[in-house]
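2024-03-11 09:14:02 INFO receiving multi-entity request
2024-03-11 09:14:02 INFO entity count = two
2024-03-11 09:14:03 INFO echoing inputs for audit
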Amino acid sequence: MPAALLIALVALVFAALWIAGPWSLPAPISLEGRQYDSHLALTLATLGTAFLLVQSLLVWGIWRHRAARPLRGGAWLEWAWTLVTAAVFFSLAWAGQRLQPTPAAPEAEAVRIEVLSQQFAWNFRYPGADGRFGLTSAALINDAAVNPFGLDPADPNSADDVVSSALRVPLGTTVELTLRSRDVIHSLFIRELRLKQDLIPGMTIPIRFRAEQTGTYEIACAELCGLGHHQMRSVLEVLPRADFERWLATEIARRQP
Amino acid sequence: MRWLNPGHKAIGIRYFWLALAAALIGQALSLLMRFHVVDPTAKVAWWEWLWPVQAAGGMMTPELYLALMTIHGTLMVFFTLTLAPQSAFGSHLLTLQIGAPGMALPRLHAASYWITLAAFALQIAAIFATGGGPLSGWTAYPPLSAVGSAAGPGQGTGQSLWLASLGLFCVAALLASANFVVTTLECRTRGMRFLRLPLPAWSWFLTALLSLPSFTILLLAALLLLADRHLGTSFFIPAGLVFTGLPLTEGGGSPLLWQHLFWFFGHPEVYIAILPGMGVVSQILADHARRPVFGYRTMVAALGAIAVLGMLVWGHHMFTSGLSPYARMAFSLLSIAVGVPSAVKTFHWIATIWGGRLRFTTAMLFALGFVSVFVTGGLSGIILAQLGLNAYFHDTYFVVAHFHFIMGVSAVFGIFAATYYWFPKMFGRLLDERLGKLHFYLTFLGVHLVFLPMHFLGLEGNPRRYPEFAEFEFLGRLLPLHEYITWGAFATGAVQLTFLGNLIYSRYRGPFASANPWHATTLEWIAPSPPPPENFPSGYPIVDHPPYAYETDSEASDYHTQADAYQEHPTTGDQRQGLFFCAATIVMVWHAGLASALVFRRFAPDWSRLPASPALWWAAGLALAAAIFWRLSIRYPRLRLAAFPLSFASCLVPALLPWEAAQGPALWFYSLIAGSQALFSLACLYPLLRGSSQPAIRVWYLITLWWLLWAAALRLLA
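2024-03-11 09:21:47 INFO inference complete, emitting structure
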């Protein structure tokens, strides 16, 4: 009997903490984030019910161990619970398929930013006024001279490229990130966007998002990248459009004395 | 040489103590880690004594934390969760459950134990390696693990030792699995049809089948990574890497290739850890509810379905790695599909105890606890398996909570249940029940104190594998929860001393056990406790009952053991055939892994053409000729003498020819393919020249066919 009580107690406390506990995801700042939260809520409600149901059956089976009528095998019963479980699980998956990590079509208006990760820092590059990224070369990489991308000074397109250690984006505009890594695998994790994407050396991975709320949000690395993994922090700054333009113009001016 | 090969039961017990040692060390490391995350600047004198560089001044560095984490994961996953359920209990009890006198291949069995022990020694050495232990986690993703000390401390000797340990472990696991498969296929006693096998025997058999392809691929991956580290190849290193201003010269490999190979092993590994637990829990629930297992056939089918589906879901570990959307969707749906047979098993366990006359021994309590934590861990898997929901939780503490429940706690509860259940059989003495029950209640509570809150850390997005949390604002707020978890971990760790004490005390002072203390039905309970070397001293059982014949009509007892009659000599089949089947599986999967490496290389920007097509044609022609000779040798046995050299030559040709022509990775492909094929040929020599070659010929056809397919694929890709 104590086993039944203990299992019941643990299950109830767990369920209560899910519902009433102070822990939750941070408020979303994008449409995708809100869709994510609503599907998560549906999933949690469904699986939470299943959790309580199955644990109660177990507890009840232990508690009434002599009084209950033994369950006799029957094909219909086995088929029933197999099919019901499959239906519940796959309905959830089906409902979740509409969640796409990024909006589908590329946009002409989009702000393009290149992300280059390294042990243990984030680098962000903006193409500047000409809208073109300059050539880079691994041989020219020089962290001491603040050239983490290895920008090629001989290429005219690179003259106005802006390199930043924080990700500054305009409000309500689609941002296209091109993810690259310089050394090992890192992972870009922005909680408020419900966004996580690995940066794989040798691969160029595009992702998109549109932030709908100004503010500063922390960026963390979510793939073990070495001894400084836990210090690999940057921030996403969502600025009003005008502020963003002003900041970019200042930076471009600084690059071209 | 009794100490070298003391027989399968003693080997099982040695595996048990080895797994226990690994678990104790692994748990101690986890406590050090928990201590560090809540108090990163604490100074502890004996840490400096253990790690003079990594804990200089007694203060644990982040790299030491990551090294402890790596070794914790490896010790737990490989040396505890793989060894205890499968190697320890399986070695001891498989033959007893199927009524056999011993394993089919006893010397191979001893070899696998000794190789495992060597792997364990290397693993421990890695913690104390010069330059620090490996810090890339048990998943060891390259390039972090591939480029040596450029990637940080601990990536030198420590990482190489770790990889060598893994490679040895794979070899041992393959030998042991082949042995388990052959023993189950060929050594069952009279009347022990497959649908009369007890569920633990089923689970050991399926786990061994699952181990054959998965450990083959891990062995391949470990060797390729070692080659990248020490032989200048670049299977996993892409071009143009720059480490702290230092460009690397290697290039053309793919880090994703490692992830595919690793998780092709890594996901089945979860089931390798949990299937034996499912088997023993099913049996304990039936024994202690005095009822047959509900829907025995469905339970067997569900075990099989989990094993098969488990091979097809590795991609869900790579949802954030940049796979194509279609691949991700397929992996997501397949992963959710695994939930169905798992849920079915849960319903059957509950149905088995429903209305039964339950006896609450410690073994039964842990079996019930297993069902409860399996539900908790399984359902959070349905969240993670959904493609859309995965991104936020990927690599957070939510995942840590999930796999500790489903793989850690469930599997460990399976091990505890098995220990309390089979200890009397293995050691001939009973464990103390009062201490055992205390152990269960406190452990059940304890694991929830530790791992439930990790779900909430995951909700907040707390990334895993962080040695400290000071850098981030959102993590600083979670410190109180981390502190609470650390208290829980220390308390739960302390509780395990009751188990340890109980084991040691009862081993020497416990009351003697009868042959069948639980009034159970399966064959191991017919043998004396502990069983003598030949297992069944008063004759080998002839099976004529299903495995769980409870609720009988008889007045005298409520159960039938599986056997009523006995025969003087054990029943054994042809052990060679099974062995060849296993060897063929290993060789074929090995080639498939290499083929995937080749495909990945094909799409790398600096791909160079494979320069050895003449070698391929020669080898393919020789293989074909060998196959014809093997076929003819059934009629004209002397032709075997010609067929064997032809087979062997077909392996040697690709090894020798490109040595002149090829450079770099192409050479490696050929050498590895040909090398594995040649080893297989050599292994075949012994039985071929000795006795009937029929089964070997069948296997040779299979391998030859595979080789020709391979040659065609190479030709298309090159």
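2024-03-11 09:21:48 INFO post-check: Chain A touches chain B through 94 residues (CB under 8 Å).
2024-03-11 09:21:48 INFO post-check: The helical segments of chain A are 2-20, 31-63, 75-96, 241-255.
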